[in-house]
Amino acid sequence: MARNKVTVIGAGNVGATTAQRIAEAGLADVVLVDIVDGLPQGKGLDLAEAAPVVGHDARITGTNDYADTAGSDIIVVTSGIPRKPGMSRDELLSTNAGIVSSVVKGSTAVSPDAILIIVTNPLDAMCHVAMQASGFPRERVIGMAGVLDSARFRTFIAMELGVSVEDVHAFVLGGHGDTMVPLSRYSTVAGVPITELLPADRVSALEDRTAKGGAEIVALLKTGSAFYAPAASTFEMVDSILRDRKRILPCAVQLKGEFGVDGLFVGVPVVLGRGGLDRVFEITLTADERVAFDKSAAAVRDLVGHLPS
User: Fold this and answer.
1) pLDDT per residue over 97-114, tens digit each?
2) DSSP state of 293
3) Among 56, 128, 176, 306, the one annotated catalytic
4) Which of 75, 132, 155 is nearest to 265 (CA)?
5) Residues pairing with 169 in the sheet
6) Which CATH superfamily is domain 5-143 in?
7) pTM for this one?
8) Under CATH, which number does the domain 146-305 receive?
9) Annotation says 128 is catalytic
10) How many angstroms separate the CA atoms of 125 and 302, rounded?
11) CA–CA gap between residue 232 and residue 250 (Å, rounded)
12) Is the CB of residue 101 less than 8 Å from the CB of residue 82?
């Protein structure tokens, strides 16, 4: 049986760490692509040399040529300039739109049946760019943000209550960034909503820290942005798709009337299987949650309106 093939575009920290996780899990052969000559080749070789120690037989190839990515099952797009301290996500918009459009056209030309997972920020807008550049249906263009935001929320809840992250489940909707909507009444510890376990002001503080999670790490690192948790979150999506696990994960997908939104990529819970988006998992929102969700969708609409035409 032929092994699955995953292409990761962008050999920076997020891309290389994602490639490492996929290969070490024995999930697929990985092709690491970057515009910089030698960078993907060097990281690919370094990762390959770890294989005998870790004990996997996945092939890891580094390249500057999309021809090497032909026939990929999944294409993960991490390329783009990272956010620097004080830089808004919107300032990233036009530069990264150009990069994402170009890499998506190059890679989908040789893998027309692939599923795209977009990681580049500003995430929700980059999904639009990728869909336009690829011409793919919505089932095969999925943005990674909600898995990461939920992981951050779960981390902060577990730290607050002094419990295992394994027993914490968190729910985050909406755009990736300041307008995300952490749904605390659906966020539970061993099945108990955190709204029953924590006072309202603590819940609110955890929600706020989650929304600013990326910026908190950027401020601490000073010369980069998060990559361990984003890579782990991307891996979880790749795993659910390639193994057809039907995991319910919060991802950015193009809504077609679900949650009252049409034609925008917004983070919602979805079922991920072998064909990509299996279905949107729709839930009922309270009036307050609906207001927050609509505000988030409006922020995405605004970003998309600023995309270079």
Assistant:
1) 999 999 999 999 999 999
2) H
3) 176
4) 132
5) 188
6) NAD(P)-binding Rossmann-like Domain (3.40.50.720)
7) 0.96
8) 3.90.110.10
9) no
10) 9
11) 14
12) no
